[in-house]
Structure formats: structure tokens, C-alpha cells
UniProtKB/TrEMBL annotation, chains A, B:
Residue spans crossing the bilayer: none
GO biological process, one term: threonine biosynthetic process
Species of provenance: Microvirga aerophila
Enzymatic reactions: L-homoserine + ATP = O-phospho-L-homoserine + ADP + H(+)
This protein's name: Homoserine kinase
Amino acid sequence: MAVYTEVTDEELSAFLDTYDIGTVLSYKGIAEGVENTNYFLHTTQGSYILTLYEKRVREADLPFFLGLMQHLANKGLNCPLPVSNRKGEPLGRVAGRPAAIITFLDGIAIRRPTAQHCAALGGALANLHLAGQDFGMTRPNALSFDSWPPLFAQAGAQADTVSARLAERTGRELEALKSVWPSGLPSGVIHADLFTDNVFFIGPKVSGLIDFYFACTDAFAYDLAICLNAWCFEADGSFNLTKGQAMIAGYQAVRRLKSEEVEALPILCRGSAMRFMLTRLVDWLNVPPGALVKPKDPLEYDRKLNFHRHVRHAREYGLDA
Amino acid sequence: MAVYTEVTDEELSAFLDTYDIGTVLSYKGIAEGVENTNYFLHTTQGSYILTLYEKRVREADLPFFLGLMQHLANKGLNCPLPVSNRKGEPLGRVAGRPAAIITFLDGIAIRRPTAQHCAALGGALANLHLAGQDFGMTRPNALSFDSWPPLFAQAGAQADTVSARLAERTGRELEALKSVWPSGLPSGVIHADLFTDNVFFIGPKVSGLIDFYFACTDAFAYDLAICLNAWCFEADGSFNLTKGQAMIAGYQAVRRLKSEEVEALPILCRGSAMRFMLTRLVDWLNVPPGALVKPKDPLEYDRKLNFHRHVRHAREYGLDA
């Protein structure tokens, strides 16, 4: 939760003058989002989110993210639509930061999803994959396999201060993954960060997917693996097979997995657990003094990784044989 | 800016079931307010603020604050209206905290008010004083004159670590105020904390007064003195007479000051500067480690206090002779 950059009423008014969305009636900083600053914005024409992009987001990537959201929204996917300014551009600048105005989406993020939520999420994920297929831009996944050894090196020997022998465990696993990591799987736009706080529901239905700032071009099944990790484990660390079944069935009802994707799923789950363990580990070891954001526990993903090491077939995640 | 208490979707749904305001469509923590936790809440019936009262607000005072807002809103004043639950009560409990749902007010807080804003604020303040006259409850001002010596004692010798000879200066001033502090002035409900962040404007008009959690029964002119301090000084510490004139004229257009209030105004300005200097000083010296809220500068009010010590007549604040 954080507002990193404060926007004064004068700055906001001047910024809104470059748009055709009416005059401001109200704006309030939102205590959400660990990467960017977000304001809830109410104007004479509607409700919006004003996002200021902070330093963790590369400015050069913004045209991809904003273009993708426009593409997906125009395809009918429930995601925020970046509003173009009077020059026809979705990206501007306010209070010294790159900034965009996106449409406000109703819906609430569910902390403890049921199997029904997982089924709906699976369907929404597959719809995202299909809707992104004719998007013209690409962006390599900056947090794919190749980035993991350098992240691991960044943590270094300090890893063991977080958990005994974590360094050894992780080094061995990276070595093991190297020889089995799949390539050539069906690929396209993936969200790559579809945790529960990035999915809005109204009742049992998905009303919106948000936060596309890790979106990239990668294997569709890797996105599903990220979601299995994020949605189908219980607080006690156990994998909920009913939720896995629901999610995979929800996905396949929209987009059928190919046999090579089914085969790769256990490895992809291990890899995505590795990716989140490593970024959390580096964040955990580098909390700046006075930080507003509590770092997330890397060991949650160390335990998930251990679970996946013992999975032999996607059936164990709930795939219908 | 802070969300001190997180509310899960399950807790929120259960809480909303005790109200008749529809089902939740969206809720987001707001990065505003240093005393309480606030959520923007959108339901099928409208927009609201959900406030969770944190430890700095005495629970026993909540019926006064909420009753006052209901009274003022019913009188047509632009302030949030606490919504009663199905039992007819404006106060409930969620996530372990006392909580209320109040109506959402449009408008933006102006950081750098113009004389026109000051005039509008003066009028709104007088309207508040008149509208509160037949409110049935009273609450003594917990931060009136009697509270200042104990606050000063709390800071003690540490005061001088903030500014050279601040302790001596403050002790002398408290002594001086004691013999001249007025009593028997026209009194009633005052807001007592009407800083710019608690006043919303749409264009040049006041669209709402918020944050009544320091409201109490005290002299009307003391409330005006608080506003002169909060609104009519420039960033460089100078008093802007044009703004003072506008505010006092705006106030008097609605409620004429009595001669004893005019006479007391310089002392009341000194006293209200003392009150904010002291509370800021104590906060400044007691910032908890990892605090999310940056303390406000007590010396801003030390300088204002010094200005007021040289004022002989309310004309110097802009009162029409």
C-alpha cells in the first residue's frame, strides 16, 4: 500500500486539461499497488484510475502495456481501458512521472477463492490468451528462466539467513530445471502476475483483470502454472485438488491445452514457483529503511516448489485424464 | 496516509449485511487520514466511505461525532451523512474496530487556497456554527487551554532539541496566555480542525466539510482563529491580509462577530497556534519506528504564534473596521 508521488490539485487540473474527460470532482490516493501510485478519480464524465508509473516500471515498456490493455478491452475482455488524451496518446506525464488514466472497473478482489472462483479465473485466463493472439507487439519475459541465476546470485549466501540450506536447495533446483525446461510451447501474450489481488469479481463472475505491468510474450501454460500456484494452495501449504480441477477445466472450456502443454505443466509449476521465490527473496533481503510495503514471504514459494518436485503428471493438479 | 486495519471481502460482506445499502461492487483503501482507516466503497446503491476508528479516537466520543454529522447533514450542511444500519444505529464494528459508513462527498481539497477559497470557507464555517446551535449533545474540547501545560510537560526539555530555547519561549507564552485567555465567548459546536485537507471544493464553492473527529463545544471565534492560522499564512510564513479579509468577511456575511469576539481574536489566534504547536511537538518527539505518517513541523506554528504576539487588533487580520 503506497502513494509514492503526491499530485496537487493544480497539477491534476493541468493534466486533465490535456484530456477530454470532463472536470475533476474528486480524487483520492489508493493504498494499493506496490509498484505504482494510483488515484481514484471521479470527473463529470465518470470514474477512472490515474496511475503514476514509479521507478520499478521501465518507461520503454509502457507503450506495450497500455497498447495491450487497449487491444484487450477492444476485444471485449474486462480489463481497464487506457483513455487517450487530446493528442490521441494514452501516456502523459504528471508530477514528474509518466502517467495514464484508465477506466475504473467495479469488482472486489477475493482473498480466499473458492473452486467456483478458480473455475471462473481459468476461463478468464484462457480468454485473455485468445484475445491477445492478434496483438501486434511483443515483449520478452524479463523474469523468465534466464533471469533466475542472476537473481539467485543477487541473494547469494544471504539466502541461508532466511531458511537453512535455502541456497543449496535453490542451486540444485536451478540446475535440475535447466535440463528439463521446455521450449517451443504455444505462446503469446500472458499476464504473468495474475494473483488474487489482480482479479476482480462481482458475485461468482470475473468482472475484471488488472495490473498488466508484468505482461509479456511467453508460454500460455506458464501463465496457467502461475495461477495454479497463486490460487490453488491453502494457507497451510496444501494443494487443493478441487480448485486445481476447477481452474484447469475452466481454462480448457475456452482453450484446450495441447498435449505438450499438459506434459510440461509440472515443470512450469516448478519454474513459476522458482520465479516468485527468487524475486521475493531478493525483495526480502533488500527492504529499504522506512519501507511502506511489507515484503512477501519467499518461503511460501519454496514450499510450493517442493510440492511440485514430487508431481509426475498434470492429473495431480486436477487435469481430467 | 495509512490503512491501519485491513478488511477482507468476507468481513466486508458480513458487515454490509447489517445495512440496507445494496451489495458491494468495489472497495479500496484510501491513503488519507492519519487517525483512522478509510475505504472508498461502491455498492449497487451508491458511493460511501467506510471508516474504521483506530486507537487515537475514543470510542465513547463516537456517538457525539456521528450524531453531529447526522444533525448537520439534516440541516443541509454539506458534510458526510452517517448511514444507519438495520437497527437504526450509525455505529457498527468490523475487523475488530468500531466502524461507520458515511456518504461519499465529491470535491477536492485545495493545497494553496486563494482569497476566494478563504471567503467561501469563512461562510461555510459560520454556517456550521449556526447549524450546530440546536444540536443536543456537548463535548468539552479535549485540546483547550487546560490541556496545554500537560502537553508542554510531555515534551519537556526535549523541546529545545527541535529549536533553540523553544521550551523557554513556550513556557513564557503559556504564562502570558493564562492571564488573558478569554471566557464566556459565544460558544457551540466547533469543528476545531478545519485545515485545507478537511474542506472540499468544486470550483470556487465549498462542496463539503469532513473529518469531525476533533469537533467539540467551544468558542466560535476560536474556530475562526484556527482557520486564520491554517488558511491565511503563505509558505514563507507571512500572513496574507487579503485572505484574512476574505475569510472574516465571508464569515460575517453569515454570522456577525460580537464585539467581545473581535476583541479576543488576537489572543485566540495565539492560543490556537499554541495548541497545534504543542500537539505537533509531542508527535514530532514521539514518532514510532516504522511510522507511515510523516510528522508535521511544530515550528511552523511556533512562527505563527510569534506573529500573533505582535497583533494588537483584529483589523490586522483583515476585519473591516
